[in-house]
User: Fold these one by one.
Assistant:
Number 1:
Amino acid sequence: MPPQRFCSFWLISLAAMLAIVAGFDAAVDPYGIFGIPRIAGFNQVKPDASTHLLMSKTYQVERVHPVTVLLGTSRADLGFDPASPVWPASLRPVFNYGVPGAGLTTVFATLREAAATGQLANVVMLVEFESFWFPESDSPQTDEDGDRFLLSADGTPNPHRLWQRLRDGFLATLTTGALADSIDTVLGQHSRLAPDLTELGLTTEGGFERQAADNGYYGLFAAKRQQVTKAAENAVRGWAGNGGEIANMQVLRAIASFCRSRHIGLTLVIPPYNAGLLTIYRRAGLGDAYARWKHAILAQASDSVAVWDFGVPGPYTSELPPTDAKDGLTLRWYWEYVHFKRALGEKILARIIGASDEPFGIAAPDAGILGTAPMTRRAGYQPGG
Amino acid sequence: MLFNSYLFIFGFLPVALAGFYAFGRFSRLTAIHWLIGISLAFYAWWRPLNLLLIAPSILINFVAARLILHNVHARPAFARAVLLAGIVFNVCFLGYFKYLNFFESSINDLFGANLILTSLVLPLGISFITFQKIAFLIDVHAGRITEFTLRDYGLFVLFFPQLIAGPIVHYREMMPQFQQASYKLDFEALAVGISLFSFGLFKKVVLADSIAFYASPIYGVAANGIPTSLFDAWIAALGFTLQIYFDFSGYSDMALGLARLFGVRLPVNFNSPLRATSIIDFWLRWHITLTRFLTAYIYNPLALSLTRRRLAQGLPALNARQASLSAFVSLLVFPTLLTMFVSGLWHGAGYTFLLWGLLHGAYISVNHGWRQVRPRLWSNAASYRRIAAPIGFVLTFLCVVVGMVLFRAPTVQAAVTIWQGMLGWHGATAPQPVLQHLGRIGQSLAWAGVTPDLSSGLRFVHAWLWTAILLAVALALPNSLEMHAGYDPALGIKPATGARSRLSATLTWRPSMTWALAVAAVSAGGILSLGQLSEFLYWQF
């Protein structure tokens, strides 16, 4: 073959291969950013969306235009089902914008993004003790996360959005990572334990189910114990470094103020803390800090902010892990010390919506704090209206 | 600008090539000026300020070289003084930017001083450029270069495919090519260049960067003083060896391919060093142009000078058959250790690099010592070669892997921690699910003292699987130079003449439809992996 033809054939082949890869990746849409229809057996389940969760959910929330948004970290991401039957029609569509590892500033950014989609009326926000250990910087996310949002932090249209979206589209179609995730997505369709990111933003529990099947609950709890023990020891230093003050309360107040100014109902939810986790915190020296923090959160209750505390002692928080690797015990409410199961999340949602009378969780007035605001915002509310 | 970036591949390179061949159709000089200009732009892209450092340095070296050239016969003492001044200038230039901090911190360490460390940004490729400039001055003084212009010299130093990380080229092997080139688009050169560049890109972004994901964190853990278990330590050592192998091999292929796109052949710089059967063999395959420089400009002059001094004192010189211990130590071990010390220092300003250089100096000295005594211990050369080659390969491989820990570790203490781990001092653990899935083998491992841990089984399996695949690629497959041997991929590479294995014959590159498809697949793999930018390891030197 003459070298000139070699070069031409190489160029055409390369272009064709890249086009095929881009087409395949776009069709599979492993991160759910293009909103390509989900086809059973091909791309219905998105097991790899969790690798770019904030990006995926930002694209999703703009398609959903939620009336109610669920905010928080991985506890919210996994624990609160936006498609739960407990949600009344007036509060739907509900979107789960929980982001693993999100600090309060990131949570605030996701709230602004959800509000910018147009019809947000209610916010259920999981407030977690761990988010108040270390002061956060003003920049909530990486630059590219911020560049992806509809609005800049000051509320003006985001000038970087178009470029970032082009970049996202490119990286989601023309990279080895995207190709590997697309292939994994197609192959993972028939796996019972493949985690999924639903169109309403819920990460399903397949990942934990697989870990529980592989390592048992003992393994899950043991690994988490190491992590949280180390984190709690660091937190004691962080707490001391902050002069014993609760960090980031100003961000929480800013969130409340943002919701109030836009007539968005805000419900703060203290998650059910497993008794074992609280023991670890107490042993690390965080017992008093936890009590003070909880008091400060409950004090946020007002006519526009409802506060629920599910971290109270009771049957749902006292479930303890297996004590031996050979113990095949299956827990009903927890995956490990930190993450509660969706079954428990359902009970929480039922309580705060008013669909259950079960004596689980305490609303702020009952905790001795004045002021509570049930989720009263009506569907169809337009910000600024 | 990185070779492995969208900007370089889809922006800079096409523009550079189009301009070069467009200008080349009308005027060779304009094409050369374009090449110099585009190389300056390439160099300045990262940090424009670098130009203010490199440009005066080039000018000073050019003036020094002209002075040497004009005076070498008429006023040899003056020419020699200028040569010396030029070398001192270049060494000081390099020393200031690269070693000042290390020098100051060493004084602080040794004498408890409190010298304030200076914050300096290392100009890109300074180590490579400096050696190239020193070699040029010496070659001019030795009469190996008899004419040059500022334009030629500028192109020689700045030619972008070799500017940042070598190979360290000689003026006399580069400039004749520029003088004889047609400056017309040569599709064969284009095809070979594309192919070499694509293989290099794939090695870098797919192979090297992937194994780094598994190896790098372990060095971080060791640097924090946390003991490393047996399997982790070996993943760290083997993983980094393979990472730098494919990183440098990939860079070298890309440099060769890029130069070839402009019709120029660079000298071979990397030739399957992990297949070496002795440490001397290793250094003839790893960073070949650096070995060539160190041998020609440090080792040989030093060994020659010491030999003359010994002979003047009436002492015996080094004899290939019967060397005395004192001759061996003073004429071989000492120059070798000093040369490899310089090699270590050149690679990085840190104790780990110095020790790495000395360690390899010791390896080479032992290798030379064995060569001295072997004929007396094992006189049958044929049987020796048959038996010693595989033993030599294993020993060399282990020595290289052990040395690479020092090369990669952030501190000597971290390297020691990983070495201890490799010897099993900190015990052996493996993920619980892996031990469970291994069944009886897992039970045997448990019996041998391997305890379960809570780390990810999938990551553990991937790390070992990836290591095995990369080892197989490095050791069993023909390298890029062997694959392209029929098309002069580099200076110093000749087409294979003897009988070749079926695999080698199958993987011999030729301009065919199958190869166009294969190279397109390799290019696509490389391009699809550009999402995460990562520098070449050798760019830091």
Number 2:
Amino acid sequence: MANSTLFAIGIGGTGAKCIESLMHLHAIGSLGNTKLRVFLVDADRANGNGQRTQASLNIYQNTHNLFRGGSSRWMQGDVGLYPTWSPLGDVMNRQNLGSIFSYNALKTRSPGLAGLMESLFSRQEMDADLEVGFRGRPAIGSAVMSRVSLDDPETGGSWKQLLSELKGDSNNGVACQVVVFASVFGGTGAAGAPTICRMLKNQMENLSISHVPLGAVLMLPFFSFKNPQINDQEEIFARSENFLMNTEGALNYYARYSEDLFDTAYLLGNPSYEQYEFSLGNQNQRNEANILELYAAIAACRFSRLKGQDGRACIIGRQDPRQFSWGDLPNTQETKSLLANAARFAHAWKYNFSPELDQARKIGYQRFIKGAPWFARYYGYERQGLMQLFGGSSKPRLADTQEQACKEQLDEWANLFTNWLSQIMIHGENKLQLLRVGQNTSLSQVIVNSNLDEAQLRLDDYHHLRNRLEEAKNPEEGTQGLAHTLYTLTAQS
Amino acid sequence: MILVISVVVGVLLVQWLQKIPLSQFWIVLTDVRNLEGFLEVVYNRTALSVIITGIGSLLLWVFLGFRARVNTAAQAIRYQWIWWLLLLGQIALNIILFLVWNRDPAYGSSDAVPWIVAMIILDALVFFWLPTTLATPRPLQNVPTGSMFLKHLTGD
């Protein structure tokens, strides 16, 4: 049973992407056997970034269900996902600021308030459809968020689930922490983080939930995009030239009103911006993973490990602004070891062992074992010819439904992880020289500039890995056993 | 160790054990004029060839086994061709050499042909098949035909 629970709340698209990175770190053992509970907040429920994170979490959950409890540290931690929560609620006909505040009714009933609204928001801002989010306007987001009540059954359903689990775990002596991921330069994150954290803190006090550290991972601007060629000049959308101004406003707010809110705040930014494609919202807003999101996830792991005792604010910077090295990552040795191990495992599975298992089914197991003796350590097979004299094996068969399900699930996870890693390793035009995965990369090349000498590098290939798989002492059987043994063996000292 | 034992057993077999049925007339060669001459010239030359090709093929296979870098099962299975070539190649070469030397009218014997051919095949099994099935380095250890069966039989 897990002895700690980390409740991770991702607000807006950037928050969701940080959660995706946290989930990948959790899969490879960064959080130990901590239980991870994920809560996504977005007015734009169809947001591509949020959907991508949800899809990734589903793959993680399915993989965890099939592979948990193995001998390696991979897939040990449990993950749960609450339904995505929208501050707009579930009511479909209240999708703009004007309707949320009943602006048309205010004009007749309370012209003064209507006038106040007109002075704060333009007509376009009041009419903008918020189904695609708060359009990079924290002012819109703040106005909507200010009306949210976690006691409201219409809006508070998912929160009640979270608070109930938090209270239950806390009462059972499980160490709980809450960490919030949000950008401070966009719409949903900038507007939502302080309000949601304040509400959460109040709710925890009301429910007598104490000793639960609250951390915030706040993302300063790290990407930009070219403004779109939209014909309607009045159309409201996020503009990257406003990011710094939004950031300044948000940080001022945090400094003034949120000093007592967080036990620890991690502020992350990057002076060289990643260029993303512009998107108004919805499924089209699906950006690739960024190294800064990995930093955010590492910050959350650190927060969880230190149980919130990490000081008020942590700062980290690059040693050399012109390049990026392993030493620039926090907790370098452990981070490198975890990421490199997982990258080598996913690479080995995707480009060698999974195709090999397909080949085994194609050419027949007995023939395959002639060239791959390791196979017989993990799987049974129908013996042919004279080999039938020795009877059958009790080990699971690769063709079994369960084994095939495990293999397909692991294929899916390896694809997901290598794609995420490939995206993390590209920043603008430059490739970060940390890890590389790809069809044409050999196992020893996955870690760029590894510390191995030439003799060690010569031993770091699939040939020796296959030998070690066969020599493994008392390995677990089946695809689960193969995966966990392979994970352990792909660790590079 | 298995390699050394096989070579020692093979040499004893070729140089001593297989000669006994011929020298003790358990196998009667009716057409040989000079049995001692046959053993001295035809048999000993063939025996030397069997030993050299047997040990040579074995060492070559072990060398290839240690040198092989096998990343996929298919790459390992391709070594089967080399293994069969070495096994059948040494048998064919030794039979051809024996037949050439056996054409000598002074010492040759047609009656000896099936016996010597059988001995050449047996010797190849002792010098090459047996040690390669039991002692081929990883991950080619299952490539020699019969290796999986023999290993199961010996409990390895």
Number 3:
Amino acid sequence: MNPFTYTRAQTAADAVARVMQTQGAVYLGGGTNLIDLMKEGVAVTSKLVDVSKLDLKKIESTDAGGVKLGAEAKNTETANHKLVREQYPLLTQAILAGATMQIRNMATDGGNLLQRTRCPYFYDTATPCNKRAPGTGCGAMEGLNRTHAIFGWSDQCIAVHPSDMCVALAAYEAIVHVRGGENKTRTIKFDDFHRLPGNEPQKDNTLEPGELIEAIELPKSPFGREMPLLEGTRPRELRVRARQRRRRFGTRRQQHQAGPHRDGRRGAQAVACFRSREGAGRQTPRPRSRSPPLLRRR
Amino acid sequence: MEVTIDPMQTALRVSRVVSVIDNGRIINPLTAGSQVIGGVIMGIGMALMEETSIDPRYGRPIAPSLENYAVCVNADVPNIEPYFINVPDPHVGAQGARGVGEIGITGVAAAVANAIYHATGKRFRSLPITPDKLFEQGVFA
């Protein structure tokens, strides 16, 4: 077992100072990811600084017409908050699509940004992983990587960030407020917050050592309300497209009753849908890794 | 067995299951039915989600925890209708009743694969039938 100490910070400045003074100290929010990683021996820490009692739990509207989420607000509370539900429904849906009720009750908004990847090779300390132990190699590259990155990967790492919530925050162009050493505060645009693996896959984000996330600001967005994720609450354009499809191909039930479809009618729809997304990727797709022989046979 | 496929959402769902079981005399239809429903749910998981992957290079199970092992949750479970033939089986005992056990899982995964064939014209011969396999066979594209 790896021994570590635990302290509880009273103020944000106090928390930053406590983390800065000890090598290998980290912040503890809801603990839903960090504790797992410590149990598995993936995260090795010398000191936990509990920030759950700080005054960072508020969800409030800003003067600029947006909403500010305190870093220590719980995921459940955020998803169900009136301001978020009304102005940023995509965020509500993204949060509720992830994890389980019990985990969302504990997990904090700031912690959600700082989750580590769920790559199984990252979790298994018997396998190589450049993210966990830089320089050891990547187990997933030639291994089981069905759920790994298609874009943005590097020779050293093909893991992806696990958060659903972060996808919504990126779509809303959120701004991350952080506090660092000497009590300096700064803001980071959400697009700049997480980084691609490159040659330093161990670094998930652009936070400086010791920096603490204080809040996540959602700017006022003219599209905020029109950005839903799930069927049934699709924006107008998609509803129109669905109506056109029904007119052309019949309802789903009619299609089903017509028997097995081998003429690719429904397939054609999907192709059109993907075509429109062409050019969205900035990089050519990762070639499928050579499957190990055992897998190829299946 | 009925499945629905949404190419827009690239999603596949089991939408209805009818399971008919010849299990001798049924003493308690409610609990026996529940037992079959449970078996069918496990069968749906077997067909679409549950998998322990072993990395052949290391001979180790990859992700050997429930964290990455998907099983059916409430949202994945459709309307399941269990029926029984309810004819006593004279070879088992005086009652003609048999234990239901997990008989409900039998054939469910194959039935899901057949339903997918009916819906798409594509045959899938390895479980679980995950979205990437559907993509590979061109169901969504």
